[in-house]
């Protein structure tokens, strides 16, 4: 009974102890206490636990009070810093307001002092900006560099120009006007089409053209250099350039580009004859290298042959002795060999001799006629091919960029030109050669008819 009563007291004591400290973490000492056997041991353990809990609570209270004091100190420091920054902001605001007032006073004073100088300042900036554009693109800058930075500085300046700057601006404008109408020679570096740089004497004709060693030059404002044109104008213009460079006094003719290089650039960009032919493509090469040479060779051979035969026949007309090197001589030989025959037989013999020589006189004329007809047909074929290429380009890329269609259109036009350029002379030559051949055949017919008439007349007289 005592043990049972003792166990209940221990349970009540532990429950009271645990209930009193349920908000506090259990310590290692509380968990490590042995189970009491007597009331004295239980009382002693309860007393120790109470003392430990009081000590822990005092430590926590002290830590909390220390943290509260530290937070109070930090708050006081932050309030002090805020007050200091607010005072500094007030001081800066006062300084800013004072500077604003001072700036307004200074601007008013500046406007009063400038007066009409402001209008002059605007005019100087505008003139300097215009002069900068003129100097950058002017050919004179190749001879007199360094002018653009000066006028650019005046155009972008925010201060009134000095008297020396105004005088220099006036001087540069006058010098540009003077150099526009002068022909000057000066040494300069020229960039060749291959990319090399050589130094030579350059002759400048106003602001229009620059030439060196008989070649036209181009000035690039971006680099400030003179470039030799990759393709020069016609020889007559280069001859004028050489004559101008060699002239020492007086007047010399010279071709000028009033557009300051634009027209010259278009001239040198014009395709040459070889480039035009290349635009014709395969059909153009066939017309130019097959049809035209064959036709011209046949025409040349016919001209030579018919010319020789014509001269020999003319010589035969003045001679009574027949020669076998020409058709008329061979007809005379037939006449002399058969003049004792009757008229019908002689006429048949002469017609046979004429028929033998006529194909020789008319040989090649049919080929020339066929080639003259084929050439424009090939040109038409090239035109159709070029239009097909053009419409394919339109289908793929649209009509936004005309350069994409230029190749097909060029082929169409060039082949047409080549076909006509081949057919027209061949038609004319065929007409001329056909006329010469017909005249020679006509001479043979006339002489043959004369021989027959002579035999007929003689037979009639004999009868």
What does this structure look like?
This protein is α+β, with helices and mostly antiparallel strands and about 475 residues long. It folds into three domains: about 80 residues; about 150 residues, no CATH class; about 180 residues. It contains 14 helices and five strands. Strands 1-2-3-4-5 form a five-stranded mixed β-barrel. A hairpin with a 2-residue loop joins strand 3 and strand 4. Helix 11 packs parallel to helix 14. The protein is elongated and about 195 Å long. The N terminus is likely disordered.
Q: Shape from CA axes?
A: elongated
Using only CA atoms, what is the Rg?
Answer: 58 Å
Tell me the series of helices and strands, N- to C-terminal: HHHHHHEEEEEHHHHHHHH
Q: Sheet with the most strands?
A: 5 strands, mixed, barrel
**Span between termini:** 203 Å
Strand content: 5-15%
Percentage of residues in helical conformation: over 70%
* Poorly predicted regions: 1-6, 8-31
- Give the neighbour order of strands across the main sheet: 1-2-3-4-5
Core attributes:
disordered N terminus; 5 strands; five-stranded mixed barrel; single chain; 7% strand
Question: Topology of this structure?
Answer:
Layout lengths: L1 H19 L7 H5 L6 H76 L2 H21 L10 H9 L6 H18 L2 E9 L5 E9 L3 E4 L2 E6 L4 E4 L6 H12 L15 H8 L3 H7 L1 H37 L9 H11 L5 H20 L2 H33 L5 H60 L1
Parallel strand pairs: 1-5
Antiparallel strand pairs: 1-2, 2-3, 3-4, 4-5
């Amino acid at each position: 009974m005592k043990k049972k009563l003792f166990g209940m007291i221990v349970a009540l004591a532990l429950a009271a102890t645990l209930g009193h400290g349920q908000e506090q973490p259990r310590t290692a000492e509380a968990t490590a206490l042995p189970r009491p056997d007597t009331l004295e041991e239980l009382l002693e353990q309860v007393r120790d636990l109470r003392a430990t809990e009081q000590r822990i609570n005092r430590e926590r209270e002290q830590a909390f009070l220390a943290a509260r004091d530290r937070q109070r100190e930090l708050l006081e420091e932050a309030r002090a810093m805020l007050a200091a920054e607010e005072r500094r902001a007030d001081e800066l605001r006062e300084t800013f307001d004072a500077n604003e007032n001072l700036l307004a006073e200074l601007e008013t004073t500046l406007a009063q002092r400038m007066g009409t100088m402001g209008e002059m300042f605007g005019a100087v900036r505008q003139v300097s900006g215009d002069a900068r554009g003129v100097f950058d693109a002017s050919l004179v800058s190749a001879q007199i560099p360094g002018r653009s930075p000066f006028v650019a500085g005046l155009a972008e300046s925010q201060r009134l120009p000095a008297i020396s700057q105004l005088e220099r601006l006036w001087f540069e404008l006058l010098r540009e006007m003077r150099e526009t109408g002068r022909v000057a020679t000066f040494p300069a570096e020229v960039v060749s089409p291959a990319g090399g740089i050589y130094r030579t004497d350059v002759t400048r004709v106003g602001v229009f053209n620059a030439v060196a060693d008989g070649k036209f030059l181009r000035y690039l404002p971006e680099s400030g250099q003179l470039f030799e044109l990759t393709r020069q104008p016609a020889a007559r213009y280069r001859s004028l350039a050489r004559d101008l460079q060699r002239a020492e006094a007086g007047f010399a003719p010279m071709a000028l580009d009033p557009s300051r290089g634009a027209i010259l650039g278009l001239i040198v960009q014009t395709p040459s004859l070889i480039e035009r032919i290349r635009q014709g493509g395969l059909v153009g090469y066939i017309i130019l290298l097959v049809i035209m040479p064959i036709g011209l060779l046949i025409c040349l051979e016919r001209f030579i042959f018919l010319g020789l035969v014509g001269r020999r026949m003319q010589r035969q007309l003045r001679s009574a002795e027949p020669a076998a090197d020409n058709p008329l001589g061979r007809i005379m030989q037939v006449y002399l060999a058969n003049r004792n025959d009757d008229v019908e037989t002689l006429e048949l013999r002469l017609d046979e001799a004429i028929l033998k020589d006529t194909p020789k006189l008319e040989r090649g004329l049919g080929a020339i006629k066929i080639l003259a007809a084929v050439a424009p047909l090939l040109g038409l074929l090239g035109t159709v091919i070029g239009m097909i290429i053009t419409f394919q380009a339109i289908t793929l890329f649209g009509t936004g960029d005309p350069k994409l269609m230029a190749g097909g259109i060029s082929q169409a036009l060039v082949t047409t030109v080549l076909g006509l350029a081949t057919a027209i002379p061949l038609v004319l030559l065929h007409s001329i050669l056909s006329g010469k051949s017909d005249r020679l055949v006509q001479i043979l017919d006339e002489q043959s008819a004369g021989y027959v008439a002579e035999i007929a007349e003689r037979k009639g007289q004999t009868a």
